[in-house]
Structures are given as structure tokens and as C-alpha cells.
Design brief:
This protein is mostly helical. It contains five helices and no strands. About 75% of the residues lie in helices and about 0% in strands.
């Protein structure tokens, strides 16, 4: 049941990611057009807006990647065939992701608080807009990696009686 809700949440993140990718095209196009043609004056706020959107794209993309098991995981050794070795292999990666995620979630709060006291130069927007993405991503990584670790243990329990 929890897995279904997390999958739905991840689908919402994917939609948000697509919307942000489309939104990023607008300030970037404005920058390109203003730099290389006389059609539009140069707006400096477009660079900040593009940066803000890009930061959110990176953080949301990393959340989706943790759920899809495509982030933070580089296989140096071939996938294990035995259930215990597979649990150790997957568990090692997931524990490292969890540790990293908890660091982001915990220390990200201080980072977000620091950002809440700053304003961007051109748009005069509170930098909490981007700084809050760090603890939020850490929290979502923790939830996703924790659930994947739970799944890995459940898979081990299902298959430990089988010989491969």
C-alpha cells in the first residue's frame, strides 16, 4: 500500500519535472533572443529565473532517480545471484543513500534557514525558494531509499529458501 502511494507521488514529481523543463525553455529562449538579436532587450532576471528552475529540476530529478534506482548506484561487480549476496549488494548502496540523504535532510535545514535571510540580486526573490530544495530532497531520498531497503529485505525473505 505504501509503495502504491510512493509511486503516485513519484508520478507527480515526474509531471512537475516535465512542467519545469518546459518552463525553463522560456527564460533561456529570452536570453538567447536578447543576446543575438535586436528583437528584445536584455533582461537580467531571466538568468536568475533559469537558475532557480534548473536547481529544482536537478533536485526533483534526483528524487525520481532514487525511486527508479538509477541514481547513486554504479555497479562495479556483476549483480549477485544468491539472495544474501544480492541483499548485501543492494543494501550497501541503499544504506549509503540513506546516510547521504539524512545528511542532506538534517544539514539542509540550516542551509534553508540561511537562504531565507537572503534575496536574489535581480528578482529580489527570497532565496529560500531554492535553498529549501536541499532538505526536501534529502527527506524524499530518505523515504524512497528506506522503502527500497524494506523491499530488498522482503525480497531476501521471499527468496532465501530458493537455491540458484
Amino acid at each position: 500500500m505504501i509503495g502504491i502511494w510512493l509511486e503516485r507521488f513519484c508520478k507527480v514529481l515526474r509531471v512537475l519535472l516535465a512542467v519545469l523543463m518546459g518552463a525553463l525553455a522560456i527564460p533561456v529562449a529570452m536570453q538567447v533572443i536578447s543576446r543575438y538579436t535586436p528583437l528584445m532587450p536584455t533582461y537580467l532576471w531571466t538568468e536568475e529565473l533559469a537558475t532557480f528552475i534548473f536547481i529544482w529540476i536537478v533536485m526533483i530529478g534526483s528524487m525520481v532517480a532514487v525511486w527508479d534506482r538509477t541514481h547513486f548506484d554504479v555497479r562495479v561487480l556483476p549483480d549477485a545471484n544468491r539472495p544474501l549476496l544480492k541483499l548485501m549488494q543492494d543494501g550497501f548502496v541503499l544504506v549509503l543513500i540513506l546516510a547521504f540523504a539524512l545528511i542532506f535532510a538534517w544539514y539542509g535545514l540550516e542551509y534553508a534557514e540561511f537562504g531565507s535571510r537572503q534575496k536574489s540580486v535581480m528578482m529580489r526573490a527570497n532565496k529560500l525558494i531554492t535553498h529549501i530544495s536541499v532538505p526536501l530532497a534529502g527527506t524524499v531520498w530518505t523515504i524512497f531509499a528506506g522503502y527500497r531497503f524494506y523491499e530488498a529485505i522482503a525480497e531476501f525473505r521471499r527468496t532465501k529458501g530458493t537455491v540458484q
